[in-house]
Design goal:
- By secondary structure, this protein is an all-alpha fold.
- Helix 1 runs parallel beside helix 2, helix 3 runs antiparallel to helix 4 and helix 4 crosses helix 5.
- It is built from 5 helices and no strands.
- It folds into 2 domains: about 120 residues, no CATH class; about 100 residues, no CATH class.
Length: about 240
């Protein structure tokens, strides 16, 4: 092979290496841009999550909690200076261990997705009242008023027994049965619905179904009294 041929072959080989290097440099630059864009996106999602958590905490009366300080930002290996690729202490391995930045970014994205899912679950639960959360508002109100009316009926039965032994007069028993206990039962149900029937994130008072509750309490307690009189007469 002549000297010229050797020279031409060397030039071709050098040109091929230069092109390979340029392609590699372009691929590396694109990889770094993709990592930087991914980290920026995760940072925006984390900021939105923090803002939403602050809003939820304020809605339920919790004081704002400052974010814990970290020892220092963890820069994605291989991203180079100026890339701004900071994943946080939980997204990279311990210092001194080589980590694929794409793997670290994917793990960070998975954790952010999981935080989103848990946050949505928590927000959905906060939209439900503490009392009978899976029930409809009407069914919840009926259950509460019936329970309070049943409690009033039990008190009425105690008063009937007390009347039988002379501890409570007939006038007092009649007044409590016809007016006092039904009103007290209704007020108790109204307060229970206002306290435990209100979702944590509610901005308005929950429906308390005042007419329905008053009818339930006004009917059940006197009916229980009449039923107790019939039972006493039947047992005599």
């Amino acid at each position: 092979m002549s000297g010229y041929d050797e020279y031409a072959a060397a030039v071709r080989q050098l040109s091929a290496r230069i092109r390979d290097g340029e392609r590699g440099a372009a691929a590396e630059a694109e990889r770094r841009r993709a990592l930087h864009a991914g980290v920026t996106q995760l940072g925006q999602r984390l900021a939105a999550q923090e803002q939403r958590l602050d809003q939820l905490g304020a809605a339920i009366g919790l004081p704002a909690v400052a974010a814990p300080a970290v020892a220092g930002p963890a820069t994605v290996p291989g991203s180079g200076p100026g890339a701004g690729s900071v994943l946080g202490s939980g997204a990279v391995a311990d210092a001194g261990v080589d980590v694929d930045p794409a793997v670290a970014l994917e793990e960070a994205r998975r954790l952010v997705d999981e935080a989103d899912r848990l946050g949505q679950q928590a927000e959905a639960l906060a939209q439900r009242p503490e009392l009978l959360p899976t029930w409809s508002p009407t069914a919840r109100a009926v259950a509460v008023y019936v329970t309070c009316a049943a409690a009033g009926a039990l008190v009425m039965l105690v008063l009937v027994v007390a009347n039988g032994v002379g501890l409570v007069s007939g006038v007092t028993l009649g007044a409590l049965t016809c007016a006092g206990l039904p009103v007290l039962s209704f007020v108790a149900g109204w307060l229970v619905l206002g306290r435990w029937g209100r979702p944590a994130l509610a901005t308005t008072d929950p429906p308390r179904y005042v007419p329905l509750g008053f009818v339930i309490c006004a009917l059940l307690v006197p009916l229980a009294y009449c039923a107790s009189l019939l039972l006493i007469r039947f047992l005599r």
